[in-house]
């Protein structure tokens, strides 16, 4: 039986440090997709992203188990920042040019439920999300960075401003342009943008 | 034409970072300004699409992480 379902990240970390492995499992499952996406959008390769995901969480394990975890910030921001740094380091070491990997889409939505959708609408969603990931890569670096930090790493705009050395208004402006540009690119590329497809 | 300051507030609003009093003012403006309401709708739509674009790792990668953590617990 699992009793940790509704616990905060902070509570789960305390339980984990006290030796409860199931608390860590909750923590990993809660944040794995955002951490993985943060990495994937930089390295653009599923296998590399999974390797770096493991490295990021292993770093987190060592930090927490050695009592060096600083509880001041949010866990999600912290783990995504570790992941972001590892992905950037990897990218620099590999000295690869940005490359967009085509996806077969078979595992993209493996933990999401679209059981009520038709096969056709599922395929449209899948294609749209894959194309969206490609379009994110085409954004100017400053816009892409803010978008990833806010949307996937869940950093606040003030945290992003501090981390990138700009004012909060600049961070907000970059996010605004990132979203506007993405929307324009989607429309220009005739990518499905049907509100009915995404309604709850 | 929406002012830049209002557009920035809109971004903070859709990401739940707008202060309560500013939130109330913006919500009132949304009921009176169609252009602003459409901008808000577009931002929310992009948010939803970005949520959907998140990728999930294979379970084997998660199992490796959890097993590594357990192996450290066994050693200590």
TrEMBL record, chain A:
One record GO biological process: DNA-templated transcription initiation
Entry annotated with the keyword Ion transport: no
One matching Pfam family: Sigma70_r4_2
Limits of the RNA polymerase sigma-70 region domain: 27-96
Domain RNA polymerase sigma factor 70 region 4 type: 130-170
Cited Gene3D superfamilies: 1.10.1740.10, Winged helix-like DNA-binding domain superfamily/Winged helix DNA-binding domain
Keywords assigned: DNA-binding, Sigma factor, Transcription, Transcription regulation
GO molecular function, one term: sigma factor activity
Keyword Transcription tagged: yes
Entry similarity comment: Belongs to the sigma-70 factor family. ECF subfamily.
Protein name: RNA polymerase subunit sigma-24
Organism: Pontibacter diazotrophicus
From TrEMBL, chain B:
Domain of life: Bacteria
Protein name: Uncharacterized protein
Source organism of the structure: Pontibacter diazotrophicus
